[in-house]
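Translate structure to sequence.
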């Protein structure tokens, strides 16, 4: 017995990522960066700097018009850290977005020093992207692939979430649904040969950001004035 699925006819692009605020918060809303470029570093043993740089370059290149660019210049601060952690079975990567609402109220007004925007609930101010080498190896085995290839795909997928974009659905798990790197199904992304962000992922960015945030120099330090 097997099921025959019709090809997915429509567009299947990612969009908003409605998130519940962290640190005891109760709001559920779209989180967005309010500055760019977003600076990133990696402490992951399986995702070296060159791998993350290449992923960031792809996300920068796909944006037309430019919305939220990445920079690897962490001489002043970092906004995103890529790290290794155990997540949970089936999850090769996970991106955790921290907003201002409850995690750090009245603090981190760095933005005032550059483009003048106030951090408010729903503003992203730091992100951690975790990679789970055990689950990545499981996927590599299942797909006859290798750790480096799967990690590369996972890092690229997660950086889309770092920007703030959600996931495209995979109701039937067929390749015609796999139009975006940000498809919810790793099986579709890996098995259907999606290795980089697509025009459909760009649609997702443009859904989340009508315009990109103002720029903030990468050498600006975080501070905690409490006034905003
Ligand atoms: Zn995802």
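Result:
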């Amino acid at each position: 017995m097997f099921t025959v699925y019709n090809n997915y006819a429509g567009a299947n692009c990612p969009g908003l990522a409605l998130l519940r605020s962290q640190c005891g918060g109760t709001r559920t809303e779209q989180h967005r960066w309010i500055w760019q470029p977003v600076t990133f570093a990696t402490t992951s043993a399986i995702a070296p700097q060159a791998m993350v740089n290449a992923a960031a370059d792809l996300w920068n290149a796909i944006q037309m018009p430019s919305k939220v660019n990445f920079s690897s210049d962490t001489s002043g601060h970092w906004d995103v850290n890529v790290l290794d952690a155990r997540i949970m079975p089936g999850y090769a990567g996970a991106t955790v977005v921290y907003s201002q609402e409850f995690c750090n109220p009245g603090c981190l007004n760095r933005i005032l020093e550059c483009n003048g925007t106030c951090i408010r609930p729903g503003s992203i101010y730091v992100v951690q992207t975790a990679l789970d080498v055990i689950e990545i190896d499981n996927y590599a085995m299942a797909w006859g692939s290798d750790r480096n290839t799967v990690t590369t795909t996972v890092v690229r997928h997660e950086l889309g979430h770092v920007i703030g974009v959600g996931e495209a659905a995979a109701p039937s798990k067929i390749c015609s649904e796999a139009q975006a790197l940000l498809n919810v199904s790793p099986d579709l992304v890996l098995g259907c040969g999606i290795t980089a962000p697509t025009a459909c992922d760009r649609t997702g960015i443009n859904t989340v950001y009508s315009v990109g945030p103002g720029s903030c120099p990468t050498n600006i330090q975080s501070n905690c004035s409490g006034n905003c």
